[in-house]
Amino acid sequence: MTFTPAHGIDPLADRLLVFLKAPRAGTMKTRLAHDLGDAAAARIYRALVERQLAALPSARNVEILFSPDDAEPEMRRWLGDAFDYRAQGDGDRGARLTRAFAAAFSAGARRVVAIGGDRPDLDAACLLAAQAALTRSDVVLGPAADGGYYLIGLRRMASPVFADIPWSSPTVLATTLDRCAAAGLSHERLGEKEDIDDLASWRRFENRPGSPAAPKPVQVAATPLALVIPALHEAAHIRETVTQARAQFPGAPVFVVDGASRDDTVALARAAGAEVVASARGRGLQCRTGAAAAADTGAAWLLFLHADTRLPGNAAGVVARFIAQPGVNAATFRLRFDSAGWFLRACAWLTRFDSVFTRFGDQGILIRRSCYDALGGFPAWPLFEDVELLQRVRKKTKLHSLPAAVTTSSRRFDRRGVFRQQWLNTRLLLRYLAGTSPETLAAIYRPDPAALFPAAGIRAPEPAPAARSLS
After folding, report:
1. Which of 209, 294, 359, 363 is a plausible cystine mate for 226, CB 3.0–4.6 Å?
2. In a domain, 200, yes or no
3. Domain range for 139
4. Do 114 and 260 lie in a common domain?
């Protein structure tokens, strides 16, 4: 079986240890086998492992720790040769974990995370959150609902966390936390997840929307996130925007949706590694087109980013921590302009607060795919499509503020003048909220052709409504 990488993690800094059993009937999932039989339990185990491995980072930094010790040929036939393999060896779980972590650190890893192989909702986002936690703390733990843990990570060898633990008891997590405290190790916890150990837990998973029935393997997205960047005549910005996005989210597809640019936008976007999708002009329509293209990736989250907006250097960690939280659906970044003026700095500072006057698409919109679809997506409007979508979000769920700022271009303010541009933005927004159509407002907001087509060799087309959102 071949597994597609889900999301990049630095292979020189990070090591992921996956503890698995050879899928031999009668040797695993004994409580589940009591109700369903040994063969069915083994098939379920295989399906869960395959689901999880499909959502893990690139195989180059994943090591499979298998048992029993003679199972390597069987594991390779099942999972392929992309992974490193090592026998777990003798001893209880603590002894096996200690050996595996020690070997990983001895090989040069700086952060090591260990997981089991059959947690159905443990994905790349959870692993990125664990990686981020290990930049701040000595230990990261993923609590399991039965009192144990499904994940443990260390940023340096700490044998005490595995010593004298009452394995397979409801006090595993509590005892481990006591060991951390006694050793002076700082720790962080991820969200709680449920193991599938018996018929009741399997039925809960099986009955979730979209979950398959056993024994079919579960198909999952190759990445938890897809980026959509609408663009029109953005040759001055698109290469940097795409390059930074791919650096922050190396496993995520980036879709640049071009509205018939007449400069080098398309060539530069492709050279930077984006997939270019053609669309009619209009940011709302372009965002809808990009979201439709991203549907084929199966990504659970969408990040809409303007072509002249750059992500912060910690975007990957911020996004991973956010989407790992249960129950969240949508968020925007805070805003920073590439201008030192005090007025724009004040406007940007206000974007940490949520209101129709402080949240717009140029801050980047991160939204769960299922939420986006339930809301009907972006309206195909020439203006205020971002305001409309965020208003729909607020009616359904909480719109969160991510604790990091994107940097967007102040070019419109530079061109029109800061106060004149802000007055125009405010006046048009008030008219929109009062019921004026986006088409009417777009005709007022449209920049003159010379401003829209400033590059040499670009000829302005015949007059037509320019579909641009406020920025």
Report:
1. 294
2. yes
3. 14-206
4. no
pLDDT in tens, 195-222: 787 777 777 776 665 554 433 333 333 3
Do residues 194 and 235 share a domain?
no
Q: Does one domain contain both 270 and 341?
A: yes
Q: What's the pLDDT score for residue 76?
A: 84
Within 10 angstroms of residue 38's Cβ, the number of other Cβ atoms is: 17
Please identify which residue in the block is written with the tokens 């007059």: 463
Number of domains in the chain: 2
Tell whether omega for the bond before 449 is within 30 degrees of 0, i.e. cis: no
Q: Do 237 and 200 fall within a single domain?
A: no
Do the Cβ atoms of 299 and 225 come closer than 8 Å?
yes
What's 315's domain CATH number?
3.90.550.10
60 falls in which pLDDT band (50, 70, 90)? low
Structural domain contains residue 403 = yes
Query: Is the pLDDT reported for residue 8 higher than 50?
Result: no
CA-angle at 442, arms to 436 and 448, nearest 5°: 145
Same-domain pairing of 82 and 136? yes
Q: Report if residue 217 sits inside a domain.
A: no
Residue 67 inside a domain? The answer is yes
